[in-house]
Structure formats: structure tokens, C-alpha cells
Amino acid sequence: MSESVLLTDSDQPSIVEAVAQLEGWRLERVTSAELSNAVASRTGVRAVVVVSSDPTILRAVVERAHGCGIPVVVACVDDTARRRAVELKAEEWYRSPAEVDEIAQRIRSAVARSQPATPSAADRIERVEYEQMLHDSLTGLPTLPVMIERSRSLFKERGELVVLYLNFVRYSKIEEIYGWEILDAVLETTAAAVREFLDDTALSTSRLMVSFTNDDDFIFFQVPAAGVAAASENEITDMVARLQRHVGGRIEAQHGEDIAALFDIYVGRAHVYYNPKIRLERLIYRGIREAANASRSIEERERGRRVADLRSSLRDRGVYVDYHPIVVTDTREIFGYEALARGVMRSLRSPEVMFDVAAEADLIWELSRLCRSRAIEGIETRLRPNELLFLNVDPHDFSDPAFNENEVKYPERVVIEITERTAIKDYPKFRERLRIFRERGFRFAVDDAGSGYAGLGSIANLEPDFIKLDISLINGIDTNFIKQNLVETMVKFANDHGAKVIAEGVERSEEFETVKALGVHLVQGFFLHRPSQMTLTPNRDVIKSPTA
Fold it and tell me: Does residue 548 form part of some domain?
């Protein structure tokens, strides 16, 4: 029987050693430029490992290989490469550099996925899927069933087990705002930071895990060493405070302040004692439920504290404003600023958190009034006469008697962004309110188009002057042709109806060049400029790319 060939554009020793683990396989190397043609011309090729970070080469290789029925494994050096691999539907990917065993396993898995479903192939696929269920591919953490087995003998021997449940309460909000790719990256950072933290504590022998693959809450077991007492409530409380600072710092360093502001962790604890009359698994699962419930009780108490913080902030006008520049794509000149209000108190720093708390406490109108007031102050102190102020307003605010078309001194300089935290239920009535504002000189933007309620229906019904594309649509757009087609269609629609498109969340040069080529009129994002607070002196120069 002839050998199976693994074709690759790499000479990394880890790939060489991985192939050596595969019985009946041999390695053939070509350059990245030759790889696509070699897929079809070489005989015996059963899998391809691509290490090139060139998106054109990667696309060509995947398309050629899939046309020949050959699976592809992609070595990803960063999140951008990982997104490309997922988008192109490569059978497997791994974070490079990787261990030899992981690379070999990814190759086996890719081959199994590509095989026809004969009985023997089905068995292999089932085995691969079972193995993948035992570990979370994103964080590398084992799942709960694995850790129960690994802890079984230690638990019986010691007779007790401490279960800690780490509840990351706003990770769903990160996914909702920024998209699943960003949350995946945050989870990777979180897992690495938690493991790093545990290595430097008395809990270094604890076993960290996820409940299920792709879960966003973590669990860890501590079986105290012989002669060492289990961690006390006070020790756990102190540890949690340090863990929050450590993980939050890592997230801020790698993903920015806005995402870090959404990071919050509540840890519940349960002390489980071994009882030979009760099934061990049942004991542990009950302990996990107890710890999870304890974390939710802490969360409820924290909500009460945040409501008190919000009431204090409303009384003291404890809100400041970040002004996010919006620039003309072609010239990079400042067109206007989006005013984003933040709480002075750290617990309310994130606007998403602040408005969530206000909604729970029925203080939305009061908070919206304060935020508008703070933002409008910047028209005279922050903006030049030709620059527009983009003001976030929820549809619910239009029912507030205190919000009317006379609230702003210079309405012709204000663009009201319809943020749609709540759905618009009565469009005819709402449009009538907008008409009154338009007659005073206000303009309107639909915010977060492509996400949540802000779909085509809102654009058609509200007839906005500006269409702001959601960050999840812009993130990774340089490698996603579907996103490019959607944005191109939106630009054409805007041009036909006298509107302008604004791309939010542009953070990389590749994203900027892509939206520019697609004809997007205005751009907003950290690639061009960081936001500045109202108390800072504005930089009036034309914004230049940091790489220009």
C-alpha cells in the first residue's frame, strides 16, 4: 500500500515530528506560492497543512484542495488567521506554535471529517468527535467529565473537595456587541490569565475546566493537599478580588478598555464531603449547582449596589463623555464626533452596564437626560463649527416629556443616533416625532445596522441620513467576502437615497482599506483615532494613520 502524503509549505520541526506519529504517512514540502498547484499535481496527497498567512494563498489552497476532496489544516498565528480558516471552512485549525501531539490529532481529525460515511469511517468520526468533547478546542481546557475522572481517587483519599464556579456575567454582552470572534479571543485570554493566576497562588494544584465545550463559565476543583486546610471563605474572597484585577488587566491590555469594562466575575463556592453511600458524580454535580447558585446570589447583591451607585451618579451628575471621532474615509479629516457617556464610578464605567442597571431600576429617562446634557455641552467646548455631534438616543426616550426638539441650541449640528436598545413598536407615531425634529434641523442615523433590531426594516422606515454599520459586520471584513458584499450593497442603497454609510469599529489597516475600496463614506475606530474625554484639549490636526 502506498504512503499517504501530507503536503505543506512549512519546514517547522513540529510538523515533521507530527507526521512521524502518523503510521504510513510521509511529508512533502513546497513553497507557499507552489502549494495550490501541488495539491492537484502531486499523487497520494491525503491532507494539506498551510502555514502561510497570505489570505490569497490560503483561499486558493483551500478551494483547490476541497475541489480534490482533500482536507486542509491551517496553522493560525493570530485571531485574523483563525477567522480566515473558519470562514473558508478548513477542516481543522490550530494556534501556532502548537505541540506535536496536537498537530497530529488535528491532521487525523481533518482526514476523518473528509471521509465518506462508511461504517468504519463513521466509527472514526465518532471517535474524533468524542475526543473533541473531552477538551474545549478554544481554551484548551478539559471538560467536566474528564476532570471528575481525574479527581476521583484524590477526592476519595482526602474526603473533601472545594468547588469554585467562575461566573463571567457579561460575556454574552461582549458577543452581542462585538460578535462571536471577539468573544472567542476574550475567552482565550481569560483562560490563559486564570491559569497564570492560579500558578502563583496556594490553589496552584487546582484543576481548571469548562462544563462543556464552548462554555463561557469556568469551574475549578481544589482537593487540599495532605495536612493543608481547604481554602476558607475569607481566602476565597481575597483570591477573587486579585483574580478579577489580574484577568481584567490582561483583557484590557489585549482587547482594550471598552471590552475590559464589560468584564466582571462572580465566584461561588461549595464544600463537598465524600460519602460512600452517594454516587461520587452526583456529589460533585450537586456541589457545582450549589457553587453556581452562590455566584448568582453574589451577582444579585452586586446589582443592588450598582443601583445605589447609579442613583448617586444621577444626583451628583457623575457622568463624563468620550468623544469618538468620525472621519471622512478619503481624506481622513474629522467629520464629527459620537458622544459616548460613561459613569465616573468604576462600577458604571461601561455605558452598556450603566444603561442595563438603569433599565432594571426604571431610571432610563433620568440617565438619558443626564447623558444628553453632558454630551450637548461639547458642541461649544469640544467641536469646531463645521463638525457634527452624533448623539445616542433610544426610541424609548422619545416618550420622555423632557425630550423635545427645543432641547438643543444648535439642532442643525446634531445627528440623533437611534440606538434601538428597545424595538420600535409604532412606526407611524415614531416617524411623526422624527418629522418634528427634522423640521428643526436635526438629522438622523440608524446605529448598529446589521445587528439586533437595526435591520433593513428600520432603515426603510426611518429614512436615515446616516447608516452606521455594526462592528460585528466590519470586524474581519478584509477576509470575509459575504460581509464585503453586504457592505457594498448598503453603500449602493445609501448612494441611491442620499445617505452616508459609517463603518464602526475599524481597528486594522486591512479593514480600513477594504471599507474604503467598497466606497464607505465615513469611518470610526481605533485604527484612526482613540476617543478623547471632554476635559482634554482636542487635537485639531487631520487624523493620520499610525502607520502612515
Answer: no
Task: Choose the final residue of a domain: 133, 158, 179.
Answer: 133
Place of cell 466582571: 264
First and final CA of the chain: distance in angstroms?
57
CB count, 10 Å around CB of 433? 16
Give the residue ranges of DSSP H helices in 390-526: 427-440, 456-462, 471-474, 481-496, 509-517
Is-contact 415 336, C-beta < 8 A?
A: yes
Long-range CB contacts (< 8 A, 24+ apart) of 28-32?
Answer: 32/57
The answer to whether residues 348 and 379 touch, using CB atoms and an 8 Å cutoff, is no
Q: Is residue 543 part of a domain?
A: no
pLDDT in tens, 106-163: 898 888 877 765 555 556 556 655 555 677 767 778 888 888 888 888 889 889 999 9
Q: Which residue range forms the structural domain that includes residue 472? A: 317-533
Q: Is the peptide bond before 55 cis (omega within 30 degrees of 0)?
A: no
Residue 207 corresponds to which cell in the numbers above?
Answer: 484543576
Q: Note whether 340 and 443 are same-domain residues.
A: yes
* 202: amino acid identity, one letter: A
Say what the pLDDT of residue 125 is: 52
Dihedrals phi, psi of 357, to nearest 5 degrees: -65, -40
Strand partners, 47: 6
Please say whether the beta carbons of 288 and 143 come within 8 A. Answer: no
Could you tell me which residues are beta bridge partners of residue 76?
A: 95
The model carries a pTM of 0.64
Beta bridge partners of 321: 341
Cell of 447: 446605529
